[in-house]
Amino acid sequence: MEREVVITGDGSTTIHLPQWDEQYHSKHGAIQEAYHVFIKHGLNYFCFKKEISIDVTSSAVEKSQKVWNEPISILEIGFGTGLNAFITLLEAEKLKVKIEYVGVEGYPVGMNEIEQLNYPNQLEANGKEPLFKTMHEISWEIPHAISNNFSLTKQNRFFSEIEETNSYNLIYFDAFGARVQPELWTETIFKKMFDALKENGALVTYAAKGSVRRAMQAVGFLVEKLPGPPGKREMLRGTKHSMTQLK
After folding, report:
1. Using CA atoms, how far apart are residues 245 and 236, in angstroms rounded to an integer?
2. Contacts of 182 (CB under 8 A, 6+ apart)
3. Where are the beta strands (DSSP E) in 193-233?
4. 165, 68 in Cβ contact below 8 A?
């Protein structure tokens, strides 16, 4: 499928698929969306158990007390450009937490496209450009220590092939939208996500469609509607709790 690198609303790049009229990230701002959905409402929520307002250059450590001090296991559904993994690496250093990150991707992005992405520069991540490149150059299927606080395992497989149980604290669900790939937003897929999470784990996604929310609820998620990133009114977060905890 044809792919082209384009500039989004906040100056950061993403990959556009003309055939689908779909992007890997929000056209309103790739970096803004990633921080809002996956860091603010995902990683920070999990670490601090409350919402924390952040910007891309400040650390939330100084603003609140962490309630989680063990390594955090994260599964990303749709590794794609590596943006979500890269900003999570940067946040791991700021928050001083260890993260074990697994990124699943059925159709890996080529290095010729990766080299056109401007994330290290836009994030003002001075000296971190080699780490972003390394994330894409490492071999698939085995863990690699990218930094002292961040290890990455890239898996070249389809989301339907995920069979892990009780394995992850947090899931970044960043698949292409239901408009172009509805099969990725079904009860079948979300049951796999629910099973893959550890107790008290959370799944965050930019999506907010009623059909997505209902599919998540049907497999057991406690689902919250949250304010969306620029260009979207809402997003969803689902948490996994036992029935005992909910009583």
Report:
1. 21
2. none
3. 197-205, 222-227
4. no
Residue whose entry in the numeric block shows the structure tokens 């995920």: 162
Euclidean distance between CA atoms 165 and 195, whole angstroms: 5
The amino acid sitting at 172 is Y
The fold of 4-246 is Rossmann fold (3.40.50)
pLDDT of residue 52: 45
> Phi-psi region for residue 201, left (φ > 0), alpha (ψ -120 to 50) or beta?
beta
> In angstroms, rounded to a whole number, what is the distance separating the alpha carbons of residues 146 and 88?
12
From the CB of residue 124, how many other CB atoms can be counted at a distance below 10 Å?
Answer: 9
> What is the Cα–Cα distance from 84 to 123, expressed in whole angstroms?
12
DSSP state, 24?
S
In the chain, which residues have pLDDT < 50? 52-54, 56-57, 59-63, 244-247
Strand, coil or helix: 190: helix
pLDDT at residue number 47: 87
Q: Which of 59, 67, 65, 15 is nearest to 39 (CA)?
A: 59
What are the pLDDT digits (tens) for 58-83? 544 444 566 667 899 999 999 999 99
User: Whose structure tokens read 């080699």?
Assistant: 130
